[in-house]
Amino acid sequence: MNLEIHESWKPYLEAEFKKDYFKNLIAFVSKEYKDSKCFPPEEAIFNAFNYCHFNDVKVVIIGQDPYHDHGQANGLCFSVADGVKHPPSLVNIFKEIETDLSIPYPESGNLERWAKQGVLLLNATLTVRAHEAASHQKQGWETFTDAVIKAVSDNKEDVIFLLWGGFAKKKAKLIDATKHLILTSGHPSPLSANRGYWFGNKHFSKVNQKLEILGEEIIEW
Predict the structure, then answer these.
(1) Looking at the annotation, which residues are catalytic?
(2) Does the keyword DNA damage feature in the UniProt annotation (predicted)?
(3) Does residue 66 have a cis peptide bond before it, meaning omega lies within 30 degrees of 0?
(4) Where do the domains of the chain lie?
């Protein structure tokens, strides 16, 4: 199994790679990819880290699970490959950006461009079996990604964490709110968005306002 993760993350995550839970997790994932169709493609599992290097992290967005239909997941939460129809949550993210920043709705749902600007697009579980939502949960991924969130919180300052929905909000306990900004809202899924818990949160303009105050480059959403 390809465990290539960008060098910048290794000092903070190397200890996790040596732990029994992680070895068991990789054994499980390797077997799953061998026996079943799984997503994202094996070489894209650690894309969140390979597109957004540790030193560049300015914003963290936390998702739950990769998309589980063919051709969708590309290793970044909420993101899909170029040319793939936008899933409902991503549609609502783009609609909020459109309203918040008067940016036209984009053609591509590929968020690699965000990641390259310092947005860590982290799913709590990094893999999934095709057409079986949550099939790789509780195998160790959550322990690993919690360690990632904590590593960012402990070793960086002034990172903006976007916690959307109940699942993501629970991660607030891993983040030092005295040195980072945490923004929360409902999830962009239709169920939450249509009840009024997503639209109007203005998270994208709030992120850029904070980055400007910090003297950082704003994100081109």
Answers:
(1) 65
(2) yes
(3) no
(4) 7-214
